[in-house]
Amino acid sequence: MTTEHPKLNLERSEAAMAAALKVIPGGVNSPVRAFKAVGGTPPFIATAKGSRITDIDGNNYIDYVGSWGPLILGHAHPNVVAEVARVAAMGLSFGAPTTAETRLAERICQAMPSIERLRLVNSGTEATMSAIRLARAATGRDLVIKFAGCYHGHVDSLLALAGSGALTLGRPSSPGVPANVTANTLVARYNDIEALEGVCRQRGSEIAAIIVEPVAGNMGVVPPQPGFLQGLRQLCDSCGAILIFDEVMTGFRVAWGGAQSLYDVRPDLTTLGKIVGGGMPVGAYGGRAELMSQVSPEGPVYQAGTLSGNPLSVACGLATLEVLSAPGSYQELEKRSARLAAGLAAAFARGGLDVYSTRVGSMLCSFFSQLPVVDNDSAGLCDTGLYGRFFHGMLSRGIYLAPSQFEAMFVSLAHSDQDIDKTIEAAEATVAELQEEQ
Ligand code: PLP
To answer: Residues 61, 151, 190, 330: which is the catalytic one?
Structure first.
């Protein structure tokens, strides 16, 4: 834990935090923004454009948080802003169907063939909550399997902690979640298919769904090991459970068709968010037509939303996907992300720091650990204090990373070669500073 680098003036942010703390718990509307994992005061952001964000003290940073994933084009892309402004002038919300919702749904279905029909909701949390409900309804079963270290939003039944062991009964990870809600959640070890085989043999007929981040992005970035996702597909097929890929983060991020196209595994249901809203509140869940036909009003599974399919969110998502669909977008993201990852790894190696690096497309992570990170237990071995010092060294040099070891670094199409060079230089300087401190 450390304080900000002396070079960074955050006077106004400090005052803003003091004011916020009086009226907002922790001063923030989502916990990780409070910098509890790295210490110090979060810069309050005033404006953003392209790869850059500027705080209310006038500090300018190259941003690798990208609003936690949605901003794959960078901030305030002119096409996206123009489209949202155009649509806003025609009415903010109708609570009635619009043709744009169908266009967004069509676009998503084309990109991800496992999604034959989908429902738009307002957040990733709503998407996973609704997908779980649908899976339970469709199977007539209650049990859900999730993986330790995977995050699916703050859905009661998924706020479940693992016990010690490869597969355990979930315990509530937050007060307010009844134990009898997580009693229907089993928590398994990511990348460990063997433990699941046993439970599928014993309790297969009780399992409604297995939900997984096909590339885990909420314990750092942990790629699936070869065969893991395929194994989940086979287990679900053998016990008649629904396989849910939570692609809220990976959808349109690791590939146009999401992680399911990258690893060639077809889930029954997929949840989306982030990029499909381009920075406005959106979520979506979809899958096989026959499953989705069970959703109200076509079927009995209730799910609704006052602002679902909101015109501004839909316009923002459509405009974002339009720009992103240009030929070469993913090659460009891959090229820049690979160069950044190589530069960072070289900086850590030169400075003699033990860092285990992972990357899937434009999702990167530098784990401050000597050992490979393949699951939540190995992620837990990271030196989070050292990450905090690295984080603040980077922030003071104008590089805005996630304020937690266990988050991804997102590269966007707005990150230029110069941005990447500057980031690598900042990493070199920060690593040298850390070495001096030791
Ligand atoms: N699923 C995944 C994989 C996520 O990364 C997140 C949020 O980060 C969610 C679900 C929840 O989405 P939201 O924060 O929009 O509710």
So the answer is: 151
- The crossing angle, in degrees rounded to 10, of helices 329-350 and 417-437 is 20
In this structure, what token pair is assigned to residue 215? 């590339």
DSSP 15-46: HHHHHHHHHSGGGSSSGGGG-TTT-SPPPPEE
For the question of residue 246 being annotated catalytic, the response is yes
The sheet carrying 185-188 orders its strands as 117-121, 283-287, 269-272, 242-246, 207-212, 143-147, 185-188, 167-169
CB 420 within 8 A of CB 338: no
User: Which of the four pLDDT bands, split at 50, 70 and 90, describes residue 223?
Assistant: very high
For helices 384-396 and 417-437, give the axis angle rounded to 10 degrees: 130
Query: Which of 55, 192, 246, 419 is flagged as catalytic?
Result: 246
Of the residues 146, 190, 263, 274, only one is catalytic, namely 274
Going from the Cα of 403 to the center of ligand 1, the distance in angstroms, rounded, reads 17
Average pLDDT of every residue of the chain: 96
pLDDT, tens only, 168-195: 888 999 999 999 999 999 999 999 999 8
What dihedral angle (degrees, nearest 10) is formed by the CA atoms of 200, 203, 207, 212? Answer: -40
Rounded distance, CA 202 to CA 196, Å?
Answer: 10
What share of the chain in percent tops pLDDT 90?
95
Q: Which two tokens stand for residue 141?
A: 């079963």
The predicted pLDDT at position 6 comes to 53
User: What is the CB < 6 Å shell around ligand 1?
Assistant: 68, 123-125, 128, 151-153, 213, 217-218, 246, 248-249, 273, 283
pLDDT for the residue numbered 155: 95
Atom of ligand 1 nearest to the CA of 273: 15
CA 223–ligand 1 middle distance (angstroms): 17
pLDDT for res 63: 98
**Does the N-terminal peptide bond of residue 297 adopt cis geometry, omega within 30 degrees of 0?**
yes
Output DSSP code: residue 225: P
